[in-house]
Design a protein that fits this description.
The protein is of the alpha/beta class. Strands 1-2-3-5-7-10 form a 6-stranded mixed sheet, with helices on both faces. A 4-stranded mixed sheet has the order 4-6-8-9. Helix 1 crosses helix 11 and helix 12 runs antiparallel to helix 13. It is globular and about 60 Å long. The structure holds octanoyl-coenzyme A (CO8). Octanoyl-coenzyme A binds next to helix 4 and strand 6.
Length: about 300
């Protein structure tokens, strides 16, 4: 299995492998996933010292990872597979140094019509990402524009490289965000900032995005993936069952009004008392030892 450092280099496209460093394609993960289809628009791997972090790299570098339908079908499948894999604690979606994703594929949708979008359920595969029970971290270097910014916001935590650029430039091409940009962005950054971003099409840099609360943390470009893996590994030390419940509960804050969200949170909180992992967590605390979670 490749080390964090070598995976970082692999994803940044710097072929620094030599001697004893094993390329990701020779990892046990690929063998384990031999039944998985051969992906053309993404690369997948399993990383982290416990091999419990699913890594997905968007891989259309020539088109700045524009989100064409085949890419989204593959991305949805990879996310569902990782979500169903009990050995995976968290998922990272990343791009390359130049682009996380520069939006939906404009060339692909250029000749779409209203009725085609309606009948074909244009980009309905987005739901696979939104329905994932496990935490998804967006590790954003370069452009995260339009659908790329929306994809990052669909993830649970956004870490950014210091040269990342976010934006909803759909207005420049005569349309509006269609995958949550007008809905999630105001919730993250407030109405005035969201309006400014959506109505001007201007880009904001990583530092500004962090100040606004869109991004959790900003790192040097070549440290981004390493830090994202560390975050996923930290999440992976907790009970998978309770992590899933915590994610559901935080998401309620975005999907319901406060009163309903608070009720949901309370019922989940009470519900954790029906789990073995809650009992183990509190017992371990009282006994001053590390918990041994069983995902039950
Ligand atoms: N779609 C298709 N191709 C793209 C896209 C894109 N979004 N972005 C870049 N490319 C292609 C370029 O056409 C170019 O291809 P080629 O070499 O064949 O000409 C290649 O990528 C490199 O791009 P540039 O030469 O333009 O690179 P620059 O460094 O000069 O510029 C930019 C980078 C500023 C990112 C520029 O490429 C750009 O403005 N891209 C478009 C950004 C944009 O408008 N994004 C929003 C798209 S619309 C959208 O996302 C709606 C989402 C709705 C989801 C709905 C779900 C239901």
């Amino acid at each position: 299995m490749a080390s964090v450092r070598s995976v970082t280099r692999f994803l940044l496209g710097k072929n620094l492998f030599s001697g004893n460093i094993v390329p990701a394609s020779n990892s046990g993960f690929v063998k384990f996933y031999s039944a998985a289809p051969a992906y053309e628009n993404i690369k997948i791997d399993v990383v982290g010292s416990k091999k419990n972090v699913g890594l997905i790299q968007l891989n259309r570098p020539k088109a700045l990872n524009a989100l064409c339908k085949p890419l989204f079908v593959e991305l949805g499948k990879a996310v569902v597979d990782f979500d169903n894999d009990n050995s995976i604690a968290a998922i990272i979606i990343t791009g390359n140094e130049k682009a996380f994703a520069a939006g939906a594929d404009i060339k692909e949708m250029q000749n779409n019509t209203y009725s085609l979008n309606q009948k074909g359920g244009f980009l309905r595969e987005w739901e696979d990402i939104g329905n994932c029970g496990k935490p998804i971290i967006a590790a954003v270097n370069g452009f995260a524009l339009g659908g790329g910014c929306e994809l990052a916001m669909l993830c649970d935590i956004i870490y950014a490289g210091e040269k990342a650029k976010f934006g909803q430039p759909e207005i420049n091409i005569g349309t509006i965000p269609g995958a949550g940009g007008t809905q999630r962005l105001p919730r993250y950054v407030g109405k005035s900032k969201a309006m400014e971003i959506v109505l001007t099409g201007n880009f904001i840099d990583a530092q500004e995005a962090e100040k606004m609360g869109l991004v959790s943390r900003v790192f040097p470009v070549d440290k981004l993936l390493e830090e994202s893996i560390k975050l996923a590994e930290r999440i992976g030390t907790h009970s998978p069952l309770i992590v899933k419940l915590a994610k559901q509960s935080v998401n309620q804050a975005y999907e319901t009004q406060l009163k309903a969200g608070l009720q949901f949170e309370k019922s989940i909180f009470y519900g954790t008392f029906a789990t073995e992992d809650r009992k183990e967590g509190m017992t371990a605390f009282v006994e001053k030892r590390a918990p041994n979670f069983k995902n039950e």
